[in-house]
Amino acid sequence: MSTDDTRTRILNAAGPVFAVKGFADATVRDICQAAEVNVASVNYHFGDKEQLYIETVKRAHELKVRQVNLPDWSESTPPANKLRDFVRTLITRMLGTHAAPWQSTLMMREVLHPTAACRALVKDYFRPEFNVLISVLREMVKEGTPDYKLHQIAFSILGQCLHYRVAGDVVAIIIDEQERSEHYSVAQLADHIAEFSLAALGQIQPYSNDAAHAPQECGEHSSTQRSDEIFSTE
Amino acid sequence: MSTDDTRTRILNAAGPVFAVKGFADATVRDICQAAEVNVASVNYHFGDKEQLYIETVKRAHELKVRQVNLPDWSESTPPANKLRDFVRTLITRMLGTHAAPWQSTLMMREVLHPTAACRALVKDYFRPEFNVLISVLREMVKEGTPDYKLHQIAFSILGQCLHYRVAGDVVAIIIDEQERSEHYSVAQLADHIAEFSLAALGQIQPYSNDAAHAPQECGEHSSTQRSDEIFSTE
Amino acid sequence: MSTDDTRTRILNAAGPVFAVKGFADATVRDICQAAEVNVASVNYHFGDKEQLYIETVKRAHELKVRQVNLPDWSESTPPANKLRDFVRTLITRMLGTHAAPWQSTLMMREVLHPTAACRALVKDYFRPEFNVLISVLREMVKEGTPDYKLHQIAFSILGQCLHYRVAGDVVAIIIDEQERSEHYSVAQLADHIAEFSLAALGQIQPYSNDAAHAPQECGEHSSTQRSDEIFSTE
Amino acid sequence: MSTDDTRTRILNAAGPVFAVKGFADATVRDICQAAEVNVASVNYHFGDKEQLYIETVKRAHELKVRQVNLPDWSESTPPANKLRDFVRTLITRMLGTHAAPWQSTLMMREVLHPTAACRALVKDYFRPEFNVLISVLREMVKEGTPDYKLHQIAFSILGQCLHYRVAGDVVAIIIDEQERSEHYSVAQLADHIAEFSLAALGQIQPYSNDAAHAPQECGEHSSTQRSDEIFSTE
DNA sequence: AATGAATGAGCCTTCATTCAT
DNA sequence: GATGAATGAAGGCTCATTCAT
């Protein structure tokens, strides 16, 4: 797998460009210039611009999944800890900036406007993780809770997480820079969402009570980057 | 103010086109053809394509707000009811399908990728409603709760609401048609989100307890369409 | 002759615009905006853009001629003085900046690229003055000098004068600002051209001799502006 | 360097079009149609219309200079002969019609209204020849003659030469066809201008004297076409 | 496999002109 | 006479794609 052949160079260059500009605004020339290859290469290797886009999205998905995996849970891991882990993993995967964030951006574009060719991909990617979340939740709710209820709870949790990527620009507009720098690290957001959701599920004291809401560490979790800034302060 | 003049015709035609195709992919020709006016009219009435886009986004928000307004609250309205109203209004605005849904789609585009030209616009339009939510929340949390905490709670609620529009396609893939038709009406989703959030805030019993979670009607609210299907079953 | 009717306003506005931008680059909108009249007025009053242009050129000609006339010569006025007067009048007419110089610019455009419709105009304008110059020259050359010779001498003198308007931009590029400000006033250029030509005609000592070439004042001439800068020092 | 490649074809086609119509009126489509190439080729090879124009102007000057060069002067060549050569070369370059005259027309356009983009170009191309003229003149005037005086003399000579191209149409209107055919060949005009100027400089007898003004051949000069008609007799 | 050149469709915009009031 | 709106024809330019080498 030569990492330097034309095809790979194009793919590496296409990711960020598509992520930043979107499919319509990105030009084949931009990508080829970034990849330092000939304009005709795209058509030769991928057929046309759209095929290149699809390949790029696929690749983004693979890279992202490989990057941040859910921790291994033992049978004795309390469900609340599992939920905290889940949220942290999701947030980190989407907002973590240690690597180029273009993968998330690109995938998010697909979530918002699924290309026909990418529908299956989206399904394969989200469904398994969705199931994990459901099983974690099932441990926390009263027995007999109907599936649809679990699904809605799951979406409530996912919605909170996705929001910071999906509406990240709006957040950056509404919240001033200082507050963002102090309270919007990946870890802080993950903690908040976990606590909020656990409170809703009756696993901890609700927000309006005096009970401490200090984020509770869960040993198994290999949280990588607690204090990263997630919103650029352009 | 005739409702049939060229300017209005263009604006009406531009909405759906921009919503479906986005700014880059939408062509002035398409819009003018749909509006049955000359191509040069856009330039005459709006200056250029970008100004037309901005006007269209503005109009989308105005129409949407006019369509579904927050109810009037008396001083004695309990904060929990206010929150329920807020969530319902938001969900209805975004998912209610009684009129053309292009307004929501267009605004959502701005939420996801604010155009440089629309940043200020976004700020002016979203900020006020964000502030309403904050003030409602402040009535429910312990005195002294810092602003940043309120902001994050607000985003947790907004995130849940937006999720069904933003990731609507993914939801439609994961949840089968029958469940969607039975449990994903605008009203049902609004109820769920309200209950989930109120539980997190300690205003009602948490989800895992036995206490009933039957949606609680709040008299003041003039909810219009409780049982609309929000996901097309194409 | 109301000086404020639409037609006149357009004509007044069109002059400078056509002079600066030329026919092709000037837009009807520019002109109408400057004249503060409706765009449709041009077509109403002049038929189309080209007719307006022709009218504007005509008007430029009339204004210019009225502005700087040749002085009245008595029968005893020496021919050399007549030549000096002629040159000064010509240079002043073309470069004098006391009024808007757009008339000269516009007429010069016609000289360079005569519109079919303006050919007669050019002829009527230049021919009479050309004849004056010829008759002055005839007083200075040996009897029997053929007409063609006189014509060529006349063109040599005219060419020197026109050059500063025609190639004014190039002069401004080649000659630095200081020299222009010190030695390129209307009066100085007129003096130089007159002396150079008189020397060629044997009326005064040639340039390479020691004989003074101090510009010789000729009483009859009402030279208006001796020290004006003729090249803007943008 | 095939003489038939697209780039050259465009350049060859652009010359006459720009010369006849000017920058604003010439259309890229016209040029490409004349060159029998695709419209996009201009963009590919030159970037945009303006760059093509600049290249065309450059080329016009190079071609013209290559066609008609100043003769080589030995150290003993008398300055008067140099001046005659200079004038003849200039006139020939501008009026010689043996090849396509678009080069002169195009350059003359720049002389009259230097494009912002071409200002530096104009300076670089005209300055050297201007300097040659100045150095020739310096040999003929009294030592100590100030620079500005030399410059003005130079412009007097240049002005006479340019006049026949710049105001050629007007000359053709004023001078009847027969006289033009008998006395307005390139060589005759060059001779006249040289003699007139030399007389002004005291190098030869002035015009009004009896001294013969028969054009004096200067051996070194390889004048190519002495009897060309310079004004078309359409 | 790779390249530089070439292509044609299409987009946004501008402009002179006309129309209805 | 005068106006604001509307029109259609281009014009310059960009872009994805293809061709010949």
Question: Which descriptors would you attach to this protein?
Answer:
disordered C terminus, homotetramer, 0% strand, Tetracycline Repressor, domain 2, 234 residues, DNA-binding, Arc Repressor Mutant, subunit A
Portion of residues in beta strands of chain A equals under 5%
Biggest interface goes to: A-B, 58 and 58 residues
Q: What is the CATH top level name of the largest domain in chain A?
A: Mainly Alpha
Q: Per CATH, what is the topology of the largest domain in chain A? A: Tetracycline Repressor, domain 2
Oligomer: homotetramer
Q: Please outline the major beta sheet of chain A.
A: none
Q: Tell me the name of the CATH homologous superfamily of the largest domain in chain A.
A: Tetracycline Repressor, domain 2
Unreliable segments of 5+ consecutive residues of chain A: 210-234
Q: Domain count of chain A, please report it.
A: 2
Query: What structural class do helix, strand and pairing data of chain A support?
Result: mainly alpha
Shape of chain A: elongated
Q: Please state the CA-atom Rg of chain A, rounded to the nearest Å.
A: 20 Å
SS field, number of helical segments of chain A? 11
CATH architecture of the largest domain in chain A: Orthogonal Bundle
Fraction of residues in H or I helices of chain A: 55-70%
Number of strands of chain A: 0
Mean pLDDT of chain A: 82
**What is the terminal separation of chain A in angstroms?**
38 Å
Sequence of secondary-structure elements of chain A: HHHHHHHHHHH
